[in-house]
TrEMBL record:
Regions crossing the membrane: 49-72
Record organism: Micromonospora nigra
InterPro entries listed in its UniProt record: Glycopeptide_resist_protein, Vancomycin_resist_VanW, YoaR-like_PG-bd
Ranges of residues in domain YoaR-like putative peptidoglycan binding: 241-357
Lineage top rank: taxon: Bacteria
Keywords for this protein: Membrane, Transmembrane, Transmembrane helix
Name this protein carries in UniProt: Vancomycin resistance protein YoaR, contains peptidoglycan-binding and VanW domains
Amino acid sequence: MTQYGEKHPPPDDRPTIQVTAVAWPVEEPSPTVAPPPGGGQSRSRRFRLLLAAGVATAVLGSLAGVGTWAYAGDVPRGTTVLGTELGGRSRADAARELRAELERRAAVLAAPFEVRVGERTAQITPADVGLAVDVEATVAAAAAAQAHAVDRLVGSREVEPVVRVDEERLSAALEKLVGDQGRKMIKPAITFAGTKPKVRYPQPSLAVDPQDAARVVTAGWLGGQPVTVPLVESHAATTAEEVDRLVVELAKPAVAAPVRLVTDKGAVTIPPAAIAKSLRFVADDAGKLTPKVDVKRLRDALGDDLAEIEVAPKDARMTISGGKPKVVAGRPGQQLDPAALGRDLLAVLPKVDGREVAGKLAPAKPELTAEKLAGLGIKEKVSSFTTRFTGGLSSPRSQNIVTIAKDVDGTVVMPGETFSLNGHTGERSYAQGYRDAPVILDGKLVPGVGGGTSQFTTTLFNATYYAGLEDVQHKPHSYYFSRYPAVIESTIFWPNLDFKFRNNTEYGVLIDTSYTGSSVTVSIWSTKIWDSVKTEYGPRRNITSPKTVYLEPGPTCIPANGSQGFTQDAFRVIKKDGKVVKREKFSWTYSAEPRFICGRGPS
């Protein structure tokens, strides 16, 4: 693109000035006066014509000169910004002049100004919210202030400066100012208690509107006056009356009777309970309530009934064979089209009669194919960690560890994905094969289903820790157990205590578990990124001694020897190319575990 300047003068884009012809009066000779001798009349006429031509030429020349003056530069004459004349200048010169004016006003423009929201006021510093005059945009606006030709000659225009503000930072500052004056929108909701619809009616929010606030603040900032930002009520798009209508027209009839699902491979009855679990009313950010059928929830609710007509696809998986990872292909399945099933089921739910849906089975591909799995870069062992059983392999506690280890074995965590141990296993109960074993509850050991799974959690945590993966959530035990590394350990309890890590690499992560008669091991396979991951410990401090507690003897009483309490720091040190690239601090305070004695204390 050609840049216009001294070497490349801009094309003449000035409009042509229309000049109306002037009819000069010509005096007719008086009939009583004889014309001068020698053709005097002709000489007089020629003189007047020459005079007219000269005056016209002078007028044209004058207008052309003034037009050239009026249209000189990129910015029209008479154009000012913040009281500074920018007219008649090139854009570059106008920008320099405007910046000079802003520099002269710098102290004023940088000074905090008062903003009021509701009953509260605060001082806001312009730089903190990104307030600034956009010089280039302002000059462009000034250059675009094209006026009528006559206005360009004698008129004047004041162009408002273009002001920029960071709406996100401004909104954050104003939210602090709003405080408890505001309220969030309560969005409408329809849920089910069993098969009975329950409603929540909407309530409007009271808050600052971000765009309106930006407009008010940018306008008031340059004026040097206090700014008042109004609190605005925002109502949900779905009203209370519309919520009641949805209940009457959809929610209640939906669960009034079953729906028959018919396919080429047989029919399934969808009972009202399954409908209630899968029919959802979703409110968006504007509070608009939209009904939909969640087919995944419907599948879970129907369980084995739907399995009679569907074949679920099986994902590809990876195993360790001969010390190397090996991809095992998955298989496609046949399932109901979820989009069509959700749409068609929603259409019949308001009906009293004709509650039947035709389901069409379609091929279903596995989510994780062999090709995708092979391309994840899972090629080598990155880390491994082992803990030892406190009893033999046949003990209930050890069996619980083996059960959870088998459940997690072979799990692939995709790049960027967060793994949740509770989310993966679900509730650990007798139905999943877990047994009663000691767990810590209310500060003491008691029998509980799934006892021992904390040891597997600690083993998995350490394997991911030494692989350099991102720790998202873990909680060490209340008491210190010498079989675990201090601080770098984790408990788990359904549903409140979870262990989570994130695969913060560009490669897939394979969790491989194994066990022997005396230990359990978790290994992480991926592509190695770090040279080394090690732990450096600080000294133990704030050491406390255990108390002796006597408990009522009985089958639920579990004695304990007790242990000291202390606080300690552990530092994860990660090196690459011989240099420390990360140093992460983990701290924990252990309580002193009481010495529990099953029996009466001394009188």
